[in-house]
Amino acid sequence: QVQLQESGPGLVKPSQTLSLTCTVSGGSITTNYYYWNWIRQPPGKGLEWMGAIHYSGGTYYSPSLESRTSISRDTSKNQFTLQLSSVTPEDTAVYYCARSFGTWGRAYDFRGQGTQVTVSS
After folding, report:
1. Rounded distance, CA 39 to CA 16, Å?
2. What pLDDT, on the 0 to 100 scale, is given for residue 105?
3. b/e per residue 29-63 (b: at least 16 CB within 10 A)
4. How far apart are the C-alpha atoms of 121 and 109, rounded to whole Å?
5. Phi/psi of residue 67, nearest 5 degrees
6. Chain segment 6-65, per-residue pLDDT in tens
7. Residue 99 in 3-state DSSP?
8. Backbone φ and ψ of 68, nearest 5°
């Protein structure tokens, strides 16, 4: 059973960089054909795909967030990380990490429980 766990600060100030880590257990982030995604859900809105890193390290980003988003990984720790720069209160959301097979942005088979991030001064 694959498990994903998000971690990071719950409160970030405007203009700062939000940094979250997803720790994966029960499976390797280098296993062929799996994609490791970051998704968020602002209050009262639907899920928004932010980006993904795939099994060999390639990255993919939502066009609307690409200029502010960076996803990286640490294979020795089986973790991948999201960085979102220049945050505003509109970036307040529950942030999730999730796994998908063969593609990104959909068909997630495992997802973390989510972590609330609030952007406020």
Report:
1. 19
2. 87
3. beeeebbbbbbbeeeeeeeebbbbbbeeeebbbbe
4. 36
5. -70, -15
6. 999 999 999 999 999 999 999 999 999 999 999 999 999 999 999 999 999 999 999 999
7. strand
8. -115, 0
